């Protein structure tokens, strides 16, 4: 759910760009940052290693005018793509309001894309979120490469429904980047509504709705039990004799 600051009359949304390493997540944020007016953007913070892989996250506070007399602020983040950084990904995903799943279109990276989708679902459920109700947009990046798989193949291999918002992109040229961002922004704003009978100046209300998703509605029983064990640190399991 978005954070509503009634004192400052501000709506705050957190959007996370998720996907495999070197898939184009950072490139998306860099392009958005470069195309945003300086007075409306915050500093783009990036942590990389010698291979130019994102190690932590990029943070972009982006103010987008007002919505129902409330100022809208978006925080855009990426997650590290490396499998060993799963703990960091969970930290970045806390209090997330929307996800952009950046898919690397290269045929040989389909398995890595699938692993990213699975870890996204696992990490969201682990922190108590229902991924089936989270605003999600899919971006098929690197569509210009000769080894890019066909969209039908990618959708089938990754289990992405056609009805989910999705865009083709070449992020390093800016193609499809702003369209993707506008789509996830629209979905996030769709969470906020105001009853018709509300008096003038009434604060926005949060209206969760059913959304198309690539994730099943039900949480796997094994994951639920694991999450419940973590939530009860005082309960210890004793070894059988």
Question: Keywords for this structure?
Answer:
241 residues; seven-stranded mixed beta sheet; alpha/beta; Rossmann fold; globular
Fold and architecture overview:
The protein has 241 residues and is of the alpha/beta class. It has one domain: 3-Layer(aba) Sandwich (Rossmann fold). It is built from six helices and nine strands, in the order ββαββαβαβαβαββα. Strands 1, 2, 3, 4, 5, 6 and 7 form a seven-stranded mixed sheet that branches. Strands 8-9 form a two-stranded antiparallel ribbon.
Task: Offer a quick outline of the entry.
By secondary structure, the chain is of the alpha/beta class. It has helices spanning 25-34, 86-93, 110-126, 151-158, 177-189, 221-231; strands spanning 3-5, 10-18, 60-67, 70-78, 98-104, 136-141, 166-168, 192-193, 205-206.
Total number of domains: 1
CATH topology annotation: Rossmann fold
Rounded average pLDDT: 84
N-to-C CA distance: 47 Å
Mind summarizing the main beta sheet? 7 strands, mixed
Q: What would you call the structural class?
A: alpha/beta
Percent in helix: 25-40%
Low-confidence stretches: 235-241
Number of helices: 6
**Going by CATH, what is the homologous superfamily?**
P-loop containing nucleotide triphosphate hydrolases
- Rg over C-alpha atoms, rounded to the nearest angstrom: 19 Å
Topology diagram in text:
Elements: E1 3-5, E2 10-18, H1 25-34, E3 60-67, E4 70-78, H2 86-93, E5 98-104, H3 110-126, E6 136-141, H4 151-158, E7 166-168, H5 177-189, E8 192-193, E9 205-206, H6 221-231
